[in-house]
TrEMBL record:
Subunit details: Homotetramer.
One of the record's GO molecular function terms: L-xylulose reductase (NADPH) activity
Protein's name according to its UniProt entry: L-xylulose reductase
Superkingdom classification of source: Eukaryota
PROSITE patterns, A to Z: ADH_SHORT
InterPro entries linked: L-xylulose/Carbonyl_redctase, NAD(P)-bd_dom_sf, Sc_DH/Rdtase_CS, SDR_fam
Key word NADP present: yes
Residues passing through the membrane, by range: none
Pfam families: adh_short_C2
Family note: Belongs to the short-chain dehydrogenases/reductases (SDR) family.
GO BP: any one term: xylulose metabolic process
Keyword Oxidoreductase on entry: yes
Length: 273
């Protein structure tokens, strides 16, 4: 059929191709994005509070089962229905791989676990540097290695979403190690997208501005600190955890099947100016 079409004049061949495509799509009602998540399995790291907690809640509400990665069993919140807590110090290279691999195949991963050690450039410490880079960047690689291996072995064309930040590209004072770690996340994501894409696994970032988690509200409560950033946000507000969860859900879903190696910036226009 296609060979025959190609022999026709260009205009006629083009119209016939469109007609054939239209007929093949007729009667196919698009699936609702929410339907994709029913019965699927996901891993969310840093799931005990803030953005990770909200993302976990949303996935469960959409009918998914979530492996909620928590650093310590001591003091951990009671797990939600349709979740299983995985206690793991993600800075431990070998233990992290084993625990993530032992979970088995999942359909998606959200690398949300992260820390922010606030130190000015001249006050950067070895401890602050190592802790921040180990958790925000190195652990992301190790977790993703295990999860992607399971996806490939199971033939799952999954989605990996890494939580980065707007200050991965636009620096602010007193965040040397955090900016460095999130800049690393951006490049790790791009590399993963190239290497895992051939298996049908997509890797993307979600890059928030300041997010008003419980800790975020405390950290940015001083107008002298928050004011300069707020004034650069055209929408005039910081992000809520729901704003980030919405972006993550989109990136995990089959509504973003051609999105790979990019960043979905959730910043109210902070980077636009």
């Amino acid at each position: 059929m296609l060979r025959s079409i190609c022999k026709l004049p260009h205009k006629i061949a083009g119209q016939m191709a469109v007609d054939i495509l239209s007929r093949s799509m007729a009667g196919q009602a698009p699936q609702k994005m929410e339907d994709y998540f029913k019965g699927k399995k996901f891993i969310v790291t840093g799931s005990c509070a803030g953005m990770g907690e909200k993302i976990t809640e949303r996935l469960v509400d959409l009918g998914s089962f979530v492996y909620a990665v928590v650093e310590k069993e001591e003091g951990a919140a009671k797990p939600l229905p349709n979740t299983k807590q995985i206690f793991c110090d993600v800075s431990n290279w070998e233990d992290t791989y084993k625990k993530m691999y032992d979970i088995g195949p999942v359909h998606g991963l959200v690398n949300n676990a992260g820390v922010a050690v606030i130190e000015s450039f001249f006050d950067v410490t070895e401890h602050g540097w190592d802790k921040t880079l180990n958790i925000n960047a190195r652990a992301l690689v190790r977790i993703s290695q295990a999860v992607a291996k399971n996806m490939i072995d199971a033939g799952i064309k999954g989605s990996i979403v890494n939580i980065s930040s707007t200050i991965s590209t636009r620096a602010i004072p007193d965040h040397t190690t955090y900016c460095a770690s999130k800049g690393a996340v951006n490049q790790i994501t791009r590399t993963m997208a190239i290497e895992l894409g051939k298996y049908g696994i997509r890797t993307n970032n979600v890059n928030p501005t300041v997010v008003l988690t419980r800790m975020g509200k405390i950290a940015w409560s001083d107008p002298e600190k928050s004011g300069p950033i707020m004034r650069r946000i055209p929408l005039g507000r910081f992000a809520e955890t729901d704003d980030i969860a919405n972006a993550v859900i989109f990136m995990l879903s089959d509504y973003s099947t051609m999105v790979n190696g990019t960043a979905l910036v959730v910043d109210g226009g902070f980077l636009a100016g």
